Amino acid sequence: MQLEEVKSLALQISDLRKRRFEIIEELKKLRETARKYREERDKINAKVKEISEKIREIRSRRGEIIENLKFLREVRRTLREKIRKIIGEIREIRGSMPKVRGNPQRLLELRDRLDWRIQTEALSLEEEKRLIKEIIRIEQELLVYYEREEKRAQIENLRKHLDELRTQLEELQGKIDEEQKKVDEYNQQIEELMKMRDEYKQQADAYHKNYLNARERIRALEQELENISQMIKDGTKKLKEAKAMALAQKILERWKEEEEMIRERVKRIEEKFKKTRRLTLEEFILLQQYRDLLKKS
Q: What pTM was computed for the model?
């Protein structure tokens, strides 16, 4: 029974040592795999960080342009308000322009002739009054003409100013369009970078998941290795004890066999002595050494 136990324990320990070797080899591969997963994850996360920094920089530049756009649009609003106001003034002046009858040049010539007649001709009082009245009427018409010309000049000045404002507005709109184009380009860049960053994040997450799975497997194997090492230690101790017991049993069995052989020989010597009353020296010594011992046993 002891021998079977020794064989069984030895086989168990052999199997455990084989499994321990397999675990150690698997752990080597898993640790290397985990290291590669970690390195790839960290490498990709570095790219993610770099892209995120670029996005922040672009957003900062875009923010500056947006602030400038707000200012430019406010200036544009002010210009448009001024243009609407000037257009209103022009319409108002046009609505208030008096109508002029006759040709101003002819009126001037007529006035001068009438004034010349009054100065140079001997006119009756009634005729002179009529001519003076006519001159007053002509001058009133000329005043209307001068007023119209003054308003026409105002309109012309307003139109010039209006053209200047429209030119400014057109140039300003060009700047706004240019700045808006930059904002759109930055938006496109941010969108592309965010898409790229998300793709890298997915890759990093996949590597991180694989890394965690590998680490979990490593911890499980390390625990199994610790358990197996303890089992080998305990099994080795049991094997030593079983071997010792088997050896003791074998020695005991051998001693029993030797004792039986000695018992048979002593018995034969005694029978010889009874018959012949003669013994050899060796037989005498053997009989003296083992006779009492065999009787006790």
A: 0.60
